[in-house]
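Sample entry as discussed:
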Amino acid sequence: MEIDRDADFRAFWTERRLASLTTVRPDGTPHVSAVGVTVDFETGLARVITFASAVKARLVRAAGDGGIPAAVCQVEGRTWSTLEGRAILRDDPESVRDAENRYAARYRVPKPNPQRVVLEIAVNRILGNA
C-alpha cells in the first residue's frame, strides 16, 4: 500500500521524533516499547531496527511468516498519527543494511550491532490528525 498523504504528513513521519511500537503477545495483551521508526511512503512499509533478543523481535519472529498485528504511533503536541499493519522480522544483511541507512537518515548512524534485525510493518491503516 503506497502511503499517499500530504507534505505535512510526510514531514511528521520524517522529522526526528521518537515513536511507540505496539505488538501483541500470544495471550492477546499489548507489548509497547519506545522506538525509532522510518517510513517508506512508496512501498507502504514502516521499519524498526532492534536487537534479535528484544521482546518485540522475539514476538514477531515467533509469529512466523504471517507476522503479527503491530502499530507505530507518534505524538507531537496535539498532532498524532498511528500506522497499523502486520509486522514481520527480517534478518538478512541486505534488509538490515537498508533499514540502518534509513534510520541514519532520520535519526543518527546506529552503532554496529551483529545481532540487529528489522521489524517491517506493511501499513494497511492510517489513523490520526497529522
In short: Helices lie at 7-12, 55-63, 93-106. The chain is about 20% helix and 45% strand. The two ends are 18 Å apart (CA to CA).
